[in-house]
Amino acid sequence: MALYSEKVMDHFLHPRNVGVIEDANAIGEVGNAKCGDIMKMYLKIEDDIVKDVKFETFGCGSAIASSSMATEMIKGKPLSEVANLTNKAVTEALDGLPAHKIHCSVLAEEAIHSALEDYRRRQEEA
Ligand code: FES
Protein backbone atom coordinates (compact mmCIF):
# COMPACT_ATOMS: atom_id res chain seq x y z
CA MET A 1 0.00 0.00 0.00
CA ALA A 2 1.24 3.50 -0.82
CA LEU A 3 2.36 5.57 2.15
CA TYR A 4 0.13 8.47 1.14
CA SER A 5 -3.42 8.31 -0.21
CA GLU A 6 -4.32 9.81 -3.59
CA LYS A 7 -6.21 12.56 -1.78
CA VAL A 8 -3.15 13.51 0.28
CA MET A 9 -1.03 13.63 -2.86
CA ASP A 10 -3.67 15.67 -4.70
CA HIS A 11 -3.98 18.27 -1.91
CA PHE A 12 -0.21 18.37 -1.48
CA LEU A 13 0.48 18.90 -5.19
CA HIS A 14 -2.55 21.15 -5.81
CA PRO A 15 -3.33 22.82 -2.51
CA ARG A 16 -6.63 24.73 -2.35
CA ASN A 17 -7.00 28.16 -0.79
CA VAL A 18 -3.32 29.03 -0.49
CA GLY A 19 -2.51 32.64 0.28
CA VAL A 20 -3.43 35.58 2.44
CA ILE A 21 -6.73 37.39 3.03
CA GLU A 22 -5.75 41.04 3.44
CA ASP A 23 -8.95 42.00 5.28
CA ALA A 24 -9.25 38.80 7.30
CA ASN A 25 -11.07 39.28 10.60
CA ALA A 26 -9.68 36.11 12.18
CA ILE A 27 -6.08 34.93 11.99
CA GLY A 28 -4.63 31.89 13.65
CA GLU A 29 -0.98 30.92 13.73
CA VAL A 30 0.41 27.78 15.28
CA GLY A 31 3.63 25.86 15.18
CA ASN A 32 4.97 22.50 16.14
CA ALA A 33 8.06 22.86 18.30
CA LYS A 34 9.38 19.41 17.37
CA CYS A 35 9.37 19.63 13.58
CA GLY A 36 9.45 23.44 13.39
CA ASP A 37 6.52 23.62 10.96
CA ILE A 38 4.29 26.70 11.05
CA MET A 39 0.73 27.17 9.82
CA LYS A 40 -1.23 30.37 9.44
CA MET A 41 -4.98 30.53 8.72
CA TYR A 42 -6.83 33.63 7.53
CA LEU A 43 -10.62 33.69 7.86
CA LYS A 44 -13.14 36.20 6.62
CA ILE A 45 -16.19 35.73 8.81
CA GLU A 46 -19.54 37.39 8.11
CA ASP A 47 -22.81 36.68 9.91
CA ASP A 48 -21.13 33.80 11.76
CA ILE A 49 -20.27 32.10 8.46
CA VAL A 50 -16.77 31.48 7.10
CA LYS A 51 -17.11 33.37 3.81
CA ASP A 52 -13.49 32.88 2.82
CA VAL A 53 -10.42 31.11 4.11
CA LYS A 54 -6.80 30.96 3.03
CA PHE A 55 -3.68 29.48 4.52
CA GLU A 56 0.09 29.63 4.47
CA THR A 57 2.00 26.60 5.65
CA PHE A 58 5.73 26.43 6.08
CA GLY A 59 5.88 22.75 6.60
CA CYS A 60 5.78 19.23 5.31
CA GLY A 61 3.56 17.78 2.60
CA SER A 62 1.11 16.32 5.10
CA ALA A 63 0.72 19.71 6.77
CA ILE A 64 0.03 21.31 3.38
CA ALA A 65 -2.49 18.59 2.45
CA SER A 66 -4.15 18.85 5.89
CA SER A 67 -4.49 22.63 5.70
CA SER A 68 -5.80 22.47 2.17
CA MET A 69 -8.43 19.87 3.10
CA ALA A 70 -9.34 21.72 6.31
CA THR A 71 -9.97 24.97 4.42
CA GLU A 72 -12.28 23.13 2.02
CA MET A 73 -14.14 21.64 4.97
CA ILE A 74 -14.83 24.97 6.70
CA LYS A 75 -15.50 27.26 3.73
CA GLY A 76 -19.11 28.44 3.78
CA LYS A 77 -19.76 26.74 7.11
CA PRO A 78 -21.27 28.28 10.27
CA LEU A 79 -18.88 28.92 13.15
CA SER A 80 -20.70 26.39 15.34
CA GLU A 81 -19.70 23.68 12.86
CA VAL A 82 -16.19 25.02 12.30
CA ALA A 83 -15.51 24.99 16.04
CA ASN A 84 -16.12 21.25 16.07
CA LEU A 85 -13.68 20.42 13.29
CA THR A 86 -11.18 17.85 14.49
CA ASN A 87 -7.91 16.60 13.08
CA LYS A 88 -9.57 13.17 12.97
CA ALA A 89 -12.19 14.48 10.52
CA VAL A 90 -9.46 16.09 8.40
CA THR A 91 -7.42 12.88 8.40
CA GLU A 92 -10.48 10.82 7.44
CA ALA A 93 -11.31 13.23 4.62
CA LEU A 94 -7.76 12.69 3.33
CA ASP A 95 -8.30 8.91 3.44
CA GLY A 96 -5.77 8.65 6.25
CA LEU A 97 -2.24 9.74 7.09
CA PRO A 98 0.69 7.63 8.25
CA ALA A 99 0.78 7.44 12.08
CA HIS A 100 3.91 9.58 12.34
CA LYS A 101 2.18 12.28 10.29
CA ILE A 102 -0.99 12.63 12.37
CA HIS A 103 0.49 15.62 14.21
CA CYS A 104 0.49 17.51 10.89
CA SER A 105 -3.32 17.33 10.80
CA VAL A 106 -3.43 18.46 14.44
CA LEU A 107 -1.69 21.63 13.30
CA ALA A 108 -4.60 22.36 10.91
CA GLU A 109 -7.17 21.87 13.68
CA GLU A 110 -5.18 24.08 16.03
CA ALA A 111 -4.72 26.82 13.44
CA ILE A 112 -8.46 27.01 12.82
CA HIS A 113 -9.27 27.01 16.53
CA SER A 114 -6.65 29.68 17.10
CA ALA A 115 -8.31 31.81 14.36
CA LEU A 116 -11.69 31.38 16.05
CA GLU A 117 -10.19 32.53 19.35
CA ASP A 118 -8.75 35.55 17.57
CA TYR A 119 -12.20 36.30 16.13
CA ARG A 120 -13.82 36.13 19.58
CA ARG A 121 -11.12 38.39 21.01
CA ARG A 122 -11.73 40.95 18.28
CA GLN A 123 -15.50 40.77 18.85
CA GLU A 124 -15.03 41.44 22.56
CA GLU A 125 -12.75 44.38 21.87
CA ALA A 126 -15.12 45.92 19.31
FE1 FES B 1 5.51 18.60 11.38
FE2 FES B 1 4.31 17.67 9.31
S1 FES B 1 6.23 17.03 10.05
S2 FES B 1 3.69 19.33 10.51
Verbal overview:
The protein has 126 residues and is of the alpha+beta class. It contains five helices and three strands. A hairpin with a 6-residue loop joins strand 1 (26-31) and strand 2. Helix 2 (61-74) crosses helix 5 (102-125) and helix 4 (87-93) crosses helix 5. The site of FE2/S2 (inorganic) cluster (FES) has 10 residues, from helix 2 and helix 5.
Summarize the model shown.
This protein has 126 residues and is an alpha+beta fold.
What do the pLDDT scores average to? 96
Distance between the termini: 52 Å
SSE string, helix = H, strand = E? HEEEHHHH
H/I helix tally: 5
* Count of β-strands: 3
Strand arrangement across the biggest beta sheet: 1-2-3
- Rounded to an integer in angstroms, the radius of gyration calculated over CA atoms is 14 Å
What would the principal axes of the Cα set say about the shape? globular
The level of helicity is 40-55%
CATH topology: Sufe protein. Chain: A
User: Strand count, sense and closure of the main sheet?
Assistant: 3 strands, antiparallel
Low-confidence stretches: none
User: What hetero molecules are in the model?
Assistant: FE2/S2 (inorganic) cluster
The CATH class: Alpha Beta
